[in-house]
Amino acid sequence: MPNTGFVLAALGKNVRQTRETKQLTQEKLAEFASLDPTYISGIERGLRNPGIKNVAKIAKALGITTSELCKGVEA
């Protein structure tokens, strides 16, 4: 059985690292992805479980593919 907490933490880490590499604030990423900044914060902290549509929106806003964003996120 997958450890959901680990999966969410790994995704959140990828979002944060990519966002920081691109020198974006959570607010800017949220704006680009048409999401709320508190939602982005929750994802980065591993507290939110985003649906695939939102993962794809975040990846697009970061200028990467969904698979790149999910690299190392093992269920």
Account of the 3D structure:
By secondary structure, the chain is an all-alpha fold. Helices cover 65% and strands 0% of the residues. It is built from five helices and no strands. α2 (26-33) packs across α4 (52-62). It starts with a helix and ends in a 6-residue tail after the last helix.
Would you kindly provide a brief summary of this structure?
With about 80 residues, the protein is an all-alpha fold.
Strand percentage: under 5%
From the spread of the alpha carbons, the general shape counts as globular
Could you give a short account of the major beta sheet?
none
The span between the termini is 8 Å
- The CATH homologous superfamily is named lambda repressor-like DNA-binding domains
SS element count, helices: 5
Number of structurally distinct domains: 1
CATH architecture: Orthogonal Bundle
Helix content estimate: 55-70%
Rg calc: 11 Å
Strands, total number: 0
Overall CATH class: Mainly Alpha
Structural class category: mainly alpha
CATH topology name, in short, is 434 Repressor (Amino-terminal Domain)
Averaged pLDDT: 95
Low-confidence stretches: none
Order of helices and strands: HHHHH
